[in-house]
Amino acid sequence: MADEALDTQATNKKSGATKWIILVVLLIVLGVGGWFAWDMFLKEKLMGGDPQAAAGEQAPPEGQPIGTPIATGNEQLVSLPTFIVNLADPLGRRYLKITLDVEVINDKAARDLTAKEARIRDAVILLLSSKSYQDLSTMESKILLKKEVAERLNQALGGPQVLRVYITEMVVQ
């Protein structure tokens, strides 16, 4: 009789602990689910939409990336010397030969680009040598590369002066 009472108490203690564990797990799942729903569906609506618009920034014209300069009608095209770099492939046996033409906003920007050639070459070589063959093999990756080169050149020139980058020659071997 005493053994049956002890067994019943032990079973009640086990089921009580199990209920607490299930309750904690359920609260964690609800918390994560609530955060996910907030982040994915409600945050943008309740916080006023686009975070850039909330910060007071205007969206660029359609088709133009953020932070790019606006064409003024005095654009100049500058040819950069050919770049030959080793790619960041695991075996290190591939290299890239690329020639770029850069469209800048005006004549002063073209002069700055040629005057800062060492800085420009350094920025482009560092970017290109960080790429692997897979990073350059698709059309989308080449378009992304052009955008990244324009961003690096704008950083090297100290402001948004580069409008577009054109790849005039490209060999990956």
Characteristics of this structure?
single chain; 173 residues; alpha+beta; 4-stranded antiparallel beta sheet; elongated
SSE map:
Layout: H1 2-46, H2 51-54, E1 76-79, E2 83-86, E3 95-104, H3 107-115, H4 117-129, H5 133-136, H6 139-157, E4 162-172
Quick summary of this structure?
The protein is 54% helix and 17% strand.
What does this structure look like?
The protein contains six helices and four strands. With 173 residues, it is an alpha+beta fold. Strands 1, 2, 3 and 4 form a four-stranded antiparallel beta sheet that branches. The chain is elongated, with a radius of gyration of 29 Å. The chain starts with a helix and ends with a strand.
- Work out the radius of gyration: 29 Å
Average pLDDT reading: 80
End-to-end span in angstroms?
Answer: 86 Å
The helicity comes to 40-55%
- Morphology: elongated
Largest sheet: 4 strands, antiparallel
Unreliable spans = 49-67
* Strand-residue proportion: 15-25%
- Number of separate helices: 6
Give the H and E element order.
HHEEEHHHHE
Helices and strands: which structural class? alpha+beta
Number of E-type strands: 4
